[in-house]
Amino acid sequence: xxxxxxxxxxxxxxxxxxxxxxxxxxxxxxxxxxxxxxxxxxxxxxxxxxxxxxxxxxxxxxxxxxxxxxxxxxxxxxxxxxxxxxxxxxxxxxxxxxxxxxxxxxxxxxxxxxxxxxxxxxxxxxxxxxxxxxxxxxxxxxxxxxxxxxxxxxxxxxxxxxxxxxxxxxxxxxxxxxxxxxxxxxxxxxxxxxxxxxxxxxxxxxxxxxxxxxxxxxxxxxxxxxxxxxxxxxxxxxxxxxxxxxxxxxxxxxxxxxxxxxxxxxxxxxxxxxxxxxxxxxxxxxxxxxxx
Length: 292
Hints:
By secondary structure, the protein is an alpha+beta fold.
């Protein structure tokens, strides 16, 4: 089996997990394929062979890769998804960071997780993505977001107004610091920090969550993801920020933004004993109050 491995950092804390992973691969007869920049770091840190296979773009996933593995936090997982794209290669995240809703396999359970993968004792959980279209096509063909798209002001200037329409029908004008349109996967990211709801994966919805709205009666809204969302910004400045999973570019005032569900989904590997509800409960310490 060919396994693509993606990671952004190799340090004293996580180098041992790469070593453990490669030892398991050798036992299973799996072939590791490293992201090219990760390979250079691993050569220096743990002395892997210079002849190891590498990948550098999403085109390398079109054939010959059976599994995509990320080592890091949720940010690393999302960046890894940008290589996978529409290839349907299943993705698994090992959490060497702090929280980890997406990369939710703890570093202590690497061996048991790999054994389950070898036995094919897992399911593919489909995760939807967002596709963004703008007048100037500012994101080019990298216009897909796994978590969210955000429109917001550039600095500490006055609030902005984001006009939102749902399937060509006017919804609301959000007077706020910005607006988040989130996938169910992104519901536990920026959306959660801004008071939006947690949505279980598999729900076919998008979430509209205002950032620090001026009107207290404006609340997050959950809408069907088959309906395109049209957004326009109005304010005192000429330019604003639009972010896709943290990648930010400048957008002009009144430039039309269309948000749609992407035409493909990501296969995330899930194990029976490591489901979304367990992850949420454990990560957020629900039920730990001894008075319950």
